[in-house]
Design brief:
Length: 290
């Protein structure tokens, strides 16, 4: 680990919040392609961001929210910009020689047990060893993250062409959430955990976020399905696999087009998936209008 501010290994958190410049993002993605460990860390941070974003049901912000925020902006004093060229250095005065008092070092300074470990130092480095401008961008990204979680709206993650599956899922979720007809529903999964389905009829797209669902049995996988309504003939269409479910938060954008009134189902299938379900759904979430 290096102390350089532009070290891609220190930028995975900002990358998860889309708080990087184009050059920094490109550097991080090159590093991700070369390091499976760094890719896993980045995926974990993105999944955590998704979990926070969808942790609560959207609520309408109070009418006074914007007013109070704008009032804060109007009344909060702003520091003037620093002009290095206009700064006149103070003349250096010769200091008088004085005897310094003897200072006994505190025990905690030299006590190895009180020194922070490497993990703590690394964690601090990831957030504190950033230029001020980039910290501002990261803060803005965090505001967007919270805004999405509480229904204020906005973009959480950016669509990166050729990105890993987790990045693509995050981008798809972002597009669905930003749709004017966005809807969501959460249901319990047989065996434990929950499945949150988000969808947009206008985009004809949907996605699933699993939380606390155990991994599929050996040589099995979770398969996603569009289950058509009775009015549309009840056609069942395979919509992708979720191979990486492991008890944490995992997300996937369903493949194909969502029809009006479709139900989103998940079944346990043989590895590689099936053309049609071979077991009962562990969860089924209708998208019909309430």
């Amino acid at each position: 680990m290096t102390d350089r501010h532009d070290d891609p290994e220190l930028m995975t958190g900002s990358h998860a919040l889309n708080a990087l410049t184009d050059d920094e993002r490109a550097a991080v993605e090159r590093a991700l392609s070369d390091s499976p460990e760094l890719q896993r860390e980045s995926d974990s941070l993105r999944e955590t961001a998704l979990a926070l974003a969808f942790a609560v049901s959207p609520v309408e912000p109070s009418a006074s929210l914007k007013t109070s925020l704008m009032a804060k902006i109007q009344t909060t004093p702003q520091l003037p910009a620093l002009d290095d060229a206009g700064v006149t250095p103070e003349p250096v005065r010769e200091a008088r020689s004085t005897s310094a008092p003897l200072v006994t070092p505190a025990a905690s300074v030299t006590d190895p047990q009180s020194a922070p470990g490497r993990a703590a130092s690394t964690a601090r480095a990831r957030w504190f060893q950033r230029p001020a401008a980039m910290l501002s961008l990261a803060a803005a990204g965090a505001v967007v993250l919270l805004s999405v979680g509480f229904g204020v709206g906005g973009s959480l993650l950016q669509d990166d062409g050729g990105a890993p599956a987790t990045t693509q899922a995050a981008s798809g979720l972002d597009q669905i959430y930003a749709a004017p007809d966005f809807q969501r529903s959460t249901a319990k999964v047989k065996g434990g955990g929950t499945a949150t389905v988000v969808w947009s009829g206008q985009l004809q797209r949907s996605a699933v976020i699993l939380d606390g669902v155990d991994a599929a049995p050996k040589d099995k996988t979770y398969e996603l399905w569009y289950i058509g309504s009775q009015e549309s003939g009840g056609t069942i269409t395979a919509a992708g696999l979720m191979d990486d479910v492991d008890g944490g938060v995992r997300s996937a954008v369903l493949r194909g087009t969502m029809g009006t009134g479709d139900t989103i189902g998940i079944t346990v299938e043989p590895a590689g998936g099936s053309d049609q379900p071979t077991s009962d759904p562990v969860v089924a979430v209708p998208t019909s209008e309430a």
